[in-house]
Design a protein that fits this description.
This protein is 33% helix and 23% strand. The strands form 2 sheets. Strands 6-8-5-9-7-10-11 form a 7-stranded mixed β-sheet, with helices on both faces. It is α+β, with helices and mostly antiparallel strands and 312 residues long. The structure holds adenosine-5'-diphosphate (ADP) and magnesium ion (MG).
């Protein structure tokens, strides 16, 4: 008997999916079974990626499309806790062959293995449209409750991991979700609020400020600008914006942005050993606005920028 191609694909995924003690029942039944701890918050996040919007599969190939679909979800979990299992639903273009579908899943499965977040289920369809891939991840808080956007306190230091801007030149596909940064951070300190940077620093900081009913003052000279911004500005000369504007607004950095008390920041800074830098970029203030102070000391309002999905 020959299997329908989707069943054959699911069998191959099942063989490669791996497992974990937190996933007693993985692929192969009507639902997956997860062992959730009753002294932790169970976290669920989902993100859908569309060919032509979040990647162009003809350019990046199915491997990187699959990897990105899981990576953006792991980035969301990193901002709140750790991962347990992932679920991968795909609408495959009918003209794809088995090798392309396998490549897509290899992108997912390699990253899932790296971060110990086994693929525990999903759904497989084919259609006449372009590739759609939806990943859902289940995780748990590292302590009794998760780190949320609403929690920033007046006087908190605002900190960002890594460097920002210019992700469009490749990092938006190839980034590493900051699960290790989050885990280490929680070992050393207790942030009051945290978010992952998907829409751009100016927009994502705004989410923290709004949820926490506070404001912020950033210092332009402290914002870590990724070398991709300068490198590509030199090579391709694509943009007339200053480098720091890319760091503020570009989006898809997938770094972590968090706030914590000045005392906690001091402890964290002194004990931080991971190769990914943590940089203080400003302070939380009571006035509910976001301001940025230029290198010459001039203070301006920072308006959220970044990508907007349009509809309606
Ligand atoms: P059902 O008809 O009960 O929904 P399916 O044939 O859709 O069953 O799926 C069979 C099993 O394979 C389920 O455990 C499901 O979660 C899993 N599965 C299907 N597609 C995928 C996929 N793309 N990635 C991971 N698991 C999948
Ligand atoms: Mg199904």
């Amino acid at each position: 008997m020959t299997l329908r191609p989707e069943f054959a694909l699911i069998e191959r995924i099942q063989k490669a999916a791996g497992g974990s003690s937190r996933v007693p029942l993985g692929i192969g039944d009507d639902a997956a079974g997860l062992a959730c701890r009753d002294d932790r918050e169970t976290l669920v996040a989902t993100d859908m990626l569309l060919d032509g919007v979040h990647f162009v599969v003809e350019e990046c190939g199915p491997y990187w499309a699959g990897r990105k679909a899981l990576a953006v979800n792991l980035s969301d979990l990193a901002a709140m806790g750790r991962c347990m299992a992932s679920f991968v639903s795909i609408a495959i273009p009918r003209n794809w062959n088995a090798r392309e579908a396998d490549e897509l899943m290899r992108g997912v499965l390699e990253l899932a293995a790296k971060w110990d977040c086994p693929v525990a289920g999903g759904d497989t369809n084919s259609w006449d449209g372009r590739l759609v891939i939806n990943v859902a991840v289940v995780g748990e808080s590292i302590e009794a409750t998760s780190i949320r956007r609403a929690g920033a306190q007046v006087g908190d230091v605002i900190v960002v991991s890594g460097a920002l801007g210019g992700s469009i030149y490749g990092r938006h596909l190839m980034f590493e979700p900051r699960l290790d940064v989050a885990l280490q951070l929680l070992k050393l300190a207790r942030p009051n609020s945290m978010i992952d940077l998907s829409d751009g620093l100016s927009s994502d900081l705004w989410h923290i400020l709004k949820a926490s009913h506070v404001g912020a003052v950033l210092e332009q000279k402290l914002i870590p600008v990724h070398e991709d911004v300068r490198h590509h500005a030199d090579v391709v000369n694509l943009s007339s914006q200053p480098a720091f504007a890319h760091a503020l607004h570009d989006g898809e950095d997938f770094e972590l942005l968090f706030t914590l008390s000045a005392a906690q920041w001091e402890t964290l800074r002194q004990n931080w050993k991971l190769p990914i830098a943590l940089t203080k970029i400003g302070m939380i203030v009571s006035e509910e606005a976001c301001r940025i102070v230029s290198e010459t000391g001039e203070s301006k309002e920072l308006v959220p920028g970044g990508y907007v999905h349009r509809f309606g």
